[in-house]
Amino acid sequence: DGTTDITRTVHWGVPTPLQKEAYTRVLMGNIDLSRLVFPPSTAGGTVESFARRALWDVGLNYGHGTGHGIGNFLSVHEWPVGFQSNNVPLTAGMFTSIEPGYYRDGEFGIRIEDIALVVEAQTKKPFLTFEVVSLVPYDRNLIDISLLSLEQIQYLNAYYETIQARVGPELLQQQLDEEHEWLQRNTEP
């Protein structure tokens, strides 16, 4: 009962080392921006580079925006919220997508898109952070865990626990046992 915009890239075979590294670096950017703590009234364009850093570290980039506002019952791409230079400062209560990616022309493309709510951070002074409200696992087949920092792994495990706690009981209540088993496999630590 609302607007959403979630993207997951999956690979049905054996990914190449480049595909796996690119996917992992896109995921790292997604995590780094999602767990960022920042001062109130920070413009999205100021923090956007956190989503690109892991790609930039190895000379990769993407040619699209990092995110956009999400309307409640309106537009999927709702201006003026987002991470471009002309967007308004981020404030608590705003919904935005966080969607880094990577594309290799003629070969493959990757995008990981979550919806996040801007919320107050648990800090002494008033700061903000994001609460990811998308509850969809990432493709484990494409994650090179050796590239992730301890903090990124902890974030990923906490995210998977949230998915299990919120989606798992609903699947069981609806007697969707096969789907519940899939969820458990794909949200293991």
Question: Describe it for me?
Answer:
This protein has helices at 17-34, 44-47, 49-56, 150-173, 177-186; strands at residues 68-69, 78-82, 95-98, 101-104, 108-111, 114-120, 128-132. With 189 residues, the protein is an alpha+beta fold. Helix content is 34%, strand content 16%. The strands form three sheets. Strands 3-6-7 form a three-stranded antiparallel beta sheet. Strands 1-2 form a two-stranded antiparallel sheet. Strands 4-5 form a two-stranded antiparallel sheet. It has two domains: 17-140, Creatine Amidinohydrolase; 149-188.
Question: How do the helices and strands line up, and which of them pair or pack?
Answer:
Layout: H1 17-34, H2 44-47, H3 49-56, E1 68-69, E2 78-82, E3 95-98, E4 101-104, E5 108-111, E6 114-120, E7 128-132, H4 150-173, H5 177-186
Antiparallel strand pairs: 1-2, 3-6, 4-5, 6-7
Helix pairs in contact: 1-3, 4-5
Question: Short description, anyone?
Answer:
Keywords: Aminopeptidase, Hydrolase, Protease. It comes from Semnornis frantzii. By secondary structure, the chain is of the alpha+beta class.
CA radius of gyration is 17 Å
Poorly predicted ranges = none
CATH topology of the largest domain: Creatine Amidinohydrolase
Task: Give me the secondary-structure category.
Answer: alpha+beta
What's the number of domains?
A: 2
Could you give the count of β-strands?
7
Distance from N terminus to C terminus (CA atoms, Å) equals: 30 Å
How much strand content do the residues show? 15-25%
